[in-house]
Amino acid sequence: MRPEDFFAETEEDVFGVPFATPKLRRDLLRELRAGPVEEAEDAEAGVGLARLVHDELEVFGTSGNPQLNEHEIREALQAFRAVAKRLGVEVNVPFRDYATFKSYWPAERWLWIVAGTSATC
Fold this sequence. Notes:
Number of helices: 4
Shape: flat
Low-confidence stretches: 110-121
Helix content: 40-55%
Largest sheet: 2 strands, antiparallel
Order of helices and strands: EEHHHH
Mean pLDDT: 85
Number of domains: 1
Oligomer: single chain
């Protein structure tokens, strides 16, 4: 799965003009938390969730304009942890949402810069 697979296009009326906007498929995230889904195998869903979470946190930490809101990133992280656990992959993400990531990221980013390594989540 790709990060965009976790979104569905919705039509909104903006000043009388139809406007398509992506909306997070929270139902899919809840289903993934509960167990495997027909749409994708856990490994495929886990990779897509990892990319989605990484991309959103990177945008939040750099430009401050992510697509997901506080509740949505929390749900995405919960789904990611649940899928990883089913796969037997130990995931130690030391934050739950943007607020806790905000206090974590600057300190860790500084360590990556000092160490001269890549700043990836």
